[in-house]
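Notes to self after the Tuesday call (sharing in case useful).
The group wants a holo model before anyone commits to mutagenesis around the pocket. I volunteered. Ligand is phenylalanine. Logging inputs and output together so the record is complete.
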Amino acid sequence: IQTAALAAIESAPDGQSLEQAKIDFLGKKGRLTAASGLMKTLPKEEKPAFGQSLNLVRGAITAALEEKGAALQEVADREAIAGIDVTLPGREIHSGGLHPLTRIKDDAIQILRRMGFALAEGPEIEDEFHCFDALNTPADHPARNEKDTFYFDSGKLLRTHTSSVQVRTMENQSPPVRIIAPGSAYRRDEIDATHLSVFNQLEGLYVAENVSLADLKGTLVYFFQELFGPDTELQFRPHFFPFTEPSFEIDIKLHIAGRAPKWIEVAGCGIVDPAVFSAISKSRGDEAFSPDKVTGFAFGMGLDRLAMIKWGIKDIRLLIENDTRFLKQFA
Ligand code: PHE
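Result:
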């Protein structure tokens, strides 16, 4: 049996015939199995020796099958790559990356959420009440001008800032309120390297008992140092917004190797003007946000601008053009 088996294995031209040889000799109806059946016909004293030789034969056949299998596989592998130059460099695999705007937004949200701010949102198509009136912005304020704001025939408008979400949140939640609202804002600006008619803001609002300017300052210093590095300096420059008093613009000075440090404006902020709380109280019809009970701070920043500052991007239009030569740098 062994001689016949080894001959069959040796002469097997391919995997299929090798498999057939295996079945013929070792299979359930194979020759070795049949031979094992003879065992019971033998006298007791001959059984051990017979069993042993059966095992030897099985071992020899199994080893031969394995060896031949490996040899056939090697031939098959060699044939598979015949004609292929395996020394050629591999093909580049292009993997996508997050857009710089998405990255800065995610980073900002993550930092502020760690500080206890919850996400809030509001509609991009707003009314004058939520975008202006409730934010203490008088009818003749230049920001409300048709030259600066996109109005619909219905009198609705595309929100000019995410501060409208402050109003919507206070209408629907009770103090303490601690929210951030990232989202689009729209202005009828002339498009150039630093202006688009749609851009991205991130609004923040914290209202509770005894919220102070120190809280505002601590929050924003921590925020910008987390976002841009621990050496980042902040400057609170007095400013005016209708909905905060006092109001500030924040400038930061980055310390990045190879870049000249200079002050750059990054955000507006201030202590919520009591007139805003009065408008909210009137709109809600209760005293939950009475200026006698609560104080708060608010801030708003341009995310496009932050991305440009962080990565030294010189033209805001690069952020919306989807030019892969630009985007690839962030993958
Ligand atoms: N809404 C202001 C802007 O768009 C920014 C701001 C938000 C200022 C909150 C103060 C408080 O310029």
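Two things stood out.
The mean pLDDT is 94.
Residues 121 and 142 are 25 Å apart (CA to CA).
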